[in-house]
Amino acid sequence: MSKVSFFKKLFLTSVVASSLVVGANAGKKEQKFIIATASTGGTYYPVGVGIATIASLKLAKKYKMTFSAITSAGSGENVDMLDKGEVNFGILQGLFGSMAWQGKGKYEGHPRKNLRSITMLWQNVEHFVVYNQFAKTGNIMDLKNLYGRAFSIGKRNSGTRVSGQTIMNTLGIDYNKMNLQYLGYTPSAKALQNRKIDGMNIPAGPPASAVTNAFATIGADKIKILEFSDDNIKKIQASYPVWTRYIIKAGTYPSLKKDVYTIAQPNLLVATKDTPDEVVYLLTKTIYENLPFLHSVHKATLAMSLQKAIDGLPMPLHPGAAKFYKEKGIKIPDRLIAK
Asked: Less packed terminus of the chain by CB within 10 Å, N or C?
């Protein structure tokens, strides 16, 4: 089934779920919740749509709860929208969540202590894709060959931009010497295809559709995903210990014949502390009782399991999520217990 057909199916399923609510609960108050994701060419959006769809199907009739997913600029905008009460849930990069909770980076002196974790979702894998002529060694340090060239770092208010710049800062790569373009995932892939840029930064769960499209249209003989050495990883972890080694297997992308040794950080689903415990409990329960459905939405969710649900979370758990995990026998460390 094509991606377009799949999302049409998801949309129609959501419509059916909403119709069930109207028919079964006519005259009763319905609760509607919004999940902020990111741009359509990455992993956040399809997974967010998947979570919203299954939650609506399972919770609409009995609990009168429906969910919808919206696109956004990514982690940064998601934190802002959560702050303003414009959305109820958001998907964040582990790095961005850590910065927001601790009051580092753009949140220096203004930590977002209202945020609460719900679950780790999947690993956000770094895809620094460049044309082969600039990949002299195939290592991430080849980004220095793009000085003076056009490079898409991600949308201005996105976790993509922040994570990319954090990695480059740590490794001594001066991104200010590049002609930075602030594009979303799909526009980045199109700009790379049209040779309006020479490289792009796509952190997402493999296979990321923007990277798939780039390899399918340009060809693996012309572009390359840059790799990270063990020394690169040590330097990055010294500043922010959220990244770990990740291997993109051969065949993940069209004509990709060799494994790619890159790095990854966790993504997480968050809410604010004011989100009702029952809502978060039911959403968490629904997610883990319907993992096969999410697996059908995107392969990145194959990494999800109850055993990994609280791995790498940078902020305390929402009490609703904590209640579900305790019922499942998961031991919650003190640092993840909301005070």
From this structure: C
Contact 214, 223 (CB under 8 A): yes
Contact 155, 73 (CB under 8 A): yes
Whole-number Å distance between alpha carbons of 92 and 186 = 19
Return the residue matching tokens 């999800």.
Answer: 304
Note the pLDDT tens digit of each residue in 220-255. Answer: 999 999 999 999 999 998 888 789 899 999 999 999
Phi, psi of 321 (to 5 degrees): -70, -40
* Residue 57, SS3 per DSSP: helix
Task: List, in order of start, the domains of the chain with CATH numbers.
Answer: 3-123+267-336 (3.40.190.10), 125-265 (3.40.190.10)
Report DSSP letters for 78-98, one per residue.
Answer: HHHHHHHTS-SEEEEEHHHHH
Q: How many CB atoms are located within 10 Å of the residue 237 CB? A: 14
Pairing of strands 89-93, 260-272: antiparallel
pLDDT digits (tens, 9 = 90+) for 255-312: 999 999 999 999 999 999 999 999 999 999 999 999 999 999 998 899 899 999 999 8
Which one has a higher pLDDT value, 147 or 73?
A: 147
Four-residue CA torsion sign, 156, 160, 164, 165: positive
Give helix 75-84 / helix 94-102 axis angle, nearest 10°: 40
Give Cα separations from 159 to 73, 146, 309 (angstroms). 8, 21, 21
What tokens were used for 315? 């902020």
Given a contact cutoff of 8 angstroms between Cβ atoms, the answer to whether 125 and 206 are in contact is yes
CA distance 17 to 66: 8
Q: For residue 204, what is the enclosing H or E element? A: none
Residue 157: predicted pLDDT: 80
